[in-house]
Amino acid sequence: MAPLPFKPFAKVYISIAAFIIILLLGTIGYMMIEGYDTLDALYMTVITLATVGFSEVKPLSHSGRIFTIILILANIGTFTYFITQISSYFLDGEFSKVYKTYKMKTFINDLNGHVILCGFGRNGREAAKILHSSNLDFVVIEKVESRTDNLPYPVKHYMVDDATQDEVLIEAGIARAKALITTLPDDADNLFVVLTARELNPNLKIISRASHDSSIRKLKMAGANNIIMPDKIGGVHMASMVAAPDIKEFMDLMTSQHNAHFAVTEIESNKNITLEELDCWNKTGATVLGIKSADGEYAINPVPKTAVQKGHKLIVMGSKDQLDKVKGALS
């Protein structure tokens, strides 16, 4: 993406450009009306615009005086506009807001392999919490600016904009992103985001929220890899807390607790090896919970003789140091 233009001073630049244009027009005007040479015409224009009261190069004609009046009035208008814009930026806080947005877009331009999170309601905030605990960079896109300083995790990249717009997703770095999560409350908006995102990045992993069963097929056709229905998940979760409370609580702990001492993550293998040769438990202390093949099939609690091929993903549980050792063994 091309570097962003420096926009905070855009209106100030317009004022400066207007002053330069008046300066040029004044110089040309004195040359044509009074027959001055270039230096005399420029000098006359400068002292007129500056209103310093120096004497003219030579007495002005009737036309020259009318032109001088017009020049002074035009300069007053330009100067008033310039002062108004400066006051608006620095006294009303507009500059601070625009500059903050500019800096945010600059930081986003440096991201690569990040996650774009569309919508920052209850579902979006929970998703951001997991992304942060998993040490993943993410960009939040929300129409309304929301307070983030009272959250238990930092939100470094926040865009106040409409995620259904192509240019907004492009600014969020969708071409460099590895995944997009859309949690907008309206299924039609989520569908539009999925369609746009899939068109802009065919290799993107897209996870979408859905509120109605009828939306699932449409979202999959649009290009969503996974569709989540929060209402259904909530019901299943509550029933599971009755049927098998300890197991459900333990599974929730495994999937939500990520720190230097414990994490569950996926690690892609870059070699062909068996779990017995890898000997994960003895060599690293980590535990292999499952294997996902290239065609998406899962092997849960695999036996030691299980063959791991290049491109397979291992679901591994352990500390950060243990997981790093597993990554090294599979690289």
Q: Major sheet: order of its strands?
A: 3-2-1-4-5-6
What Rg do the Cα atoms give?
A: 31 Å
Gross geometry: elongated
The first-level CATH class of the largest domain is given as Alpha Beta
Binned strand content? 5-15%
Descriptive notes:
- The protein is about 50% helix and about 15% strand.
- It has about 325 residues and is α/β, with parallel strands linked by helices.
- The chain folds into three domains: about 10-90, Helix Hairpins; about 110-235, 3-Layer(aba) Sandwich (Rossmann fold); about 260-330, Alpha-Beta Plaits (2-Layer Sandwich).
- α7 links the parallel β4 and β5.
Q: What tags apply to this protein structure?
A:
Rossmann fold, Helix Hairpins, 6-stranded parallel β-sheet, 4-stranded antiparallel β-sheet, 331 residues, disordered N terminus, elongated
Short overview:
The protein is of the alpha/beta class and 331 residues long. The protein is 52% helix and 15% strand. The longest helix has 30 residues, at 62-91.
Please write out the topology.
Elements: H1 10-34, H2 38-50, H3 62-91, H4 94-109, E1 115-118, H5 122-133, E2 138-142, E3 158-160, H6 166-171, E4 179-182, H7 187-200, E5 205-209, H8 214-222, E6 226-228, H9 230-243, H10 245-256, E7 263-268, E8 273-274, H11 275-278, H12 280-284, E9 287-292, E10 298-300, E11 307-308, E12 313-318, H13 320-330
Parallel strand pairs: 1-2, 1-4, 2-3, 4-5, 5-6
Antiparallel strand pairs: 7-12, 8-11, 9-10, 9-12
Helix pairs in contact: 1-2, 1-3, 7-8, 9-10
